[in-house]
Amino acid sequence: MAHAHTHDGVNHLDHSHDDHHHDKPTGIGRWLYATNHKDIGTMYLVFSLIMFFMGGAMAMVIRAELWSPGLQFVDPLFFNSMTTTHALLMIFGAVMPAFVGLANWMIPLQVGAPDMALPRMNNYSFWILPFAFTLLLSSFFTAGGGPAGGWTMYPPLALQAGTSFPLMIFAIHLMGASSIMGAINVIVTIMNMRAPGLTLLKLPIFCWAWLITAYLLIAVMPVLAGAVTMLLTDHYFGTSFFNPAGGGDPVMYQHIFWFFGHPEVYILILPAFGIVSEIIPTFSRKPLFGYEAMIYATASIAFLSFIVWAHHMFTTGMPLAGQMFFMMSTMLIAVPTGVKVFNWTTTMWKGSLTFEPPMLFSLAFLFLFTIGGFSGLMLAIAPADFQYQDTYFVVAHFHYVLVSGAVFAIMASVYYWLPKWTGHMYSMALAKTHFWLSAVFVNVLFFPQHFLGLAGMPRRIPDYNTQFTDWNRVSSLGGFVFGLSQILFVIVIIQCVRGGPKASAKVWDDATPEGLEWTVDSPAPYHSFETPPVITEENTHPSH
Amino acid sequence: MANAHTPADQGKYYVPHGSPWPFFGSVSLFVLMLGAALTLEGSDSIPGSYVLMAGFALIFVLFYGWFGKVIEENQAGMYNLDVDRSFRMGMMWFIFSEVMFFAAFFGALFYARNLSIPWLSGEGAKHATHALIWGSYEGGWPTNGPLKLGPHADGSFEKMDAVGLPAINTLLLLTSGVTITVAHHALRAGNRAVLSIFLALTFILGFIFVGCQALEYHEAYTERGLQLGTGIYGSTFFMLTGFHGLHVTIGAIMLTVIWLRTLKGHFTADNHFAFEAVAWYWHFVDVVWLGLFVFVYWL
């Protein structure tokens, strides 16, 4: 599958007339008309960071409102639009674009390709996003305010929205189109652009994780498009998909939505697995334990994600056989996930560990994601889930896997590769401060939500019973400090972009990271691997 | 045909210069979607339909400009086999995403027929709904639900039979699948006359299919009481056949463009990605129709 290049040597001498050896473009056109994977990756990452702060600001509104029982600052409808858009921004605006940005920057470098396979489509998939979110957020200024029926858009509630309804639906369509194009680009780049000799089982584990994620994206984003299209026609054109009076069923929406939704949560975590699987071996100074097992585990998780969706809907009253099936299949996911957690742990066993910021975030990921995984197992048990459904226990669960899981892995990856991108080292002290504040306060923020949920506090409600006040205050306090400490992240990044000690090609010299991305200079040259690199044992990730 | 300095000649993967089209495309989609939202909401201050039409116009310019550029580059010999393979893989996965889009609507059809309608009529796990709310509902298929939604006052409607127009349509599409294959073989054999005749036959069959669908819709709306609002049967019928018809229309337009390109002498026996991409797309549309014919019209 690797591409056939001519290696006659002569051709490489005359670069001046070559089409893709043009000078680095300047000005606004460099970004608007970009085709360079590094530029597009940067735009994705910056966009993701902006969305992370906007979504974070919404979370701050939620935590401020929940500081005390009763209504404090915002009216209930606005509160609900905060929970709805916070979720949409964080999922489709922050985490997914961050992963695509990382894919853009790193996959061509890791497979020895000159660029992504389809560079123009790459820019298309990025530029759709700011417009999609403009559409979504503009709904706050329409009659009836922003979408407030929850990010899952369940009918009939979602159908009762005002002008925000079509804006939200079309924004989702655009985000889906962007994701599908991004995923196609990742698949084609990995399958078609690898340097000769870089066989699939020599592929860096980050590429493997992204490859499997991309298949998930192409399989489920169109299903989401179908589901929201049915909402649209039910609302405007009199169809009865979700209307029992015409023979439809509102629960049918939940089935279609979660057929998308469950693979989607793995779309949000599998690239994180890939990142952590790159970082832990580096700072353990050992090869990844069980490289192939990691690939098979990731593929198993991806497959299982298609047959577990109804565990999100145990309380909708499905037949007993359905509850049993979805309970068992869900618990089965713990097996490949366990393989991964044990392999990361075993990678560190007898390793020579150091604790640079990327490693710290990866270790926090390992511990905290596992906590989220365990609460997921609790939620998988159908009879117990009747109690947990729609409580803060669920909120605690998915924030453990998404914030201290996915987001921590993204931060780990930024701290890992930032010197490769900018050519400068960043302030270790500041980055470690950022880590410790984040790691401590993410727990202060989310751990009490387990207690609140088990005690029966419902999610998505701006008011609560007075007995929940204390733990809500702890959680809000944790939220404010966690939120503020993310400003340190931005400071570290800006400082690193503007200057700092020169980073070497390997960046983490004494840890000898493996992979082609460490064979090019730091910062990585604007055009890298125009001729494919020679694959050796030293510059690839060993599979054995 | 190829000049000496193209990357393809140097065995290199062509990475394009900066291109305005992706950004232009994003603006076009934004205008299109905003126009659609405004039209649906019946905005007074901004005439939504004008914005919507502007969106469609921009999308047309986008396709013309972007694809025109790609065709120009291809004709200049800038693409080597690796680039060609990237395009092929990209098209295959795009078609797979389309399959999954249709899967959502087929899923809705199967769910309604096999689960929710039996439940509404008193079978299985959710019989309480039937007993408490829809006591007289008997289910079955086709159905427009317990409240018999639809244009007729008595809630009556007729389903679309498989024999008649749908059977003719099946024949049309299957024949077009054959004609495009003949065209493909002719292209590979270098027989340009056969190529353009059979390619023309293919899109003519496609447009006839769309015409027949229009006749069928007209009959459904005016004579059978079968409309989008005719309960779950009308919803699944029109959404499935409607999205399919949209894809046939797009496919037939693509075939027409390909045909015009063959008349200009584009494509060679071993370099005709666009032709194959359209052929795959056409076969995909064909297969979806077979699913529709079996599950929507026949069973």
Structure characterization notes:
The complex is a heterodimer of chains A (544) and B (299). Chain A has 544 residues and is mostly helical. Chain A has a single domain, classed as Up-down Bundle (Cytochrome C Oxidase, Chain A). Chain A has helices at 29-32, 37-65, 76-111, 119-138, 164-192, 205-236, 250-267, 270-284, 291-304, 320-332, 334-348, 357-380, 382-388, 392-422, 428-454, 469-498. In chain A, helix 8 runs parallel beside helix 11. Chain A is globular. Chain B has 299 residues and is an all-alpha fold. Chain B folds into two domains: 1-79, Helix Hairpins, CATH 1.10.287; 80-298, Four Helix Bundle (Hemerythrin (Met), subunit A), CATH 1.20.120.80. Chain B has helices spanning 21-41, 48-75, 81-120, 127-132, 165-189, 192-222, 231-263, 273-298. In chain B, helix 3 (81-120) packs antiparallel against helix 7 (231-263), helix 6 packs antiparallel against helix 7 (231-263) and helix 7 (231-263) packs antiparallel against helix 8. Classes of the chains: A mainly alpha (544), B mainly alpha (299).
Would you spell out the secondary-structure blueprint of this structure?
The complex is a heterodimer of chains A (544) and B (299).
Chain A: H1 29-32, H2 37-65, H3 76-111, H4 119-138, H5 164-192, H6 205-236, H7 250-267, H8 270-284, H9 291-304, H10 320-332, H11 334-348, H12 357-380, H13 382-388, H14 392-422, H15 428-454, H16 469-498
Helix pairs in contact in A: 2-3, 2-4, 2-16, 3-4, 3-5, 3-14, 4-5, 5-6, 6-7, 6-8, 6-9, 8-11, 8-12, 8-14, 9-11, 11-12, 12-14, 12-15, 14-15, 14-16, 15-16
Chain B: H1 21-41, H2 48-75, H3 81-120, H4 127-132, H5 165-189, H6 192-222, H7 231-263, H8 273-298
Helix pairs in contact in B: 1-2, 3-7, 3-8, 5-6, 5-8, 6-7, 7-8
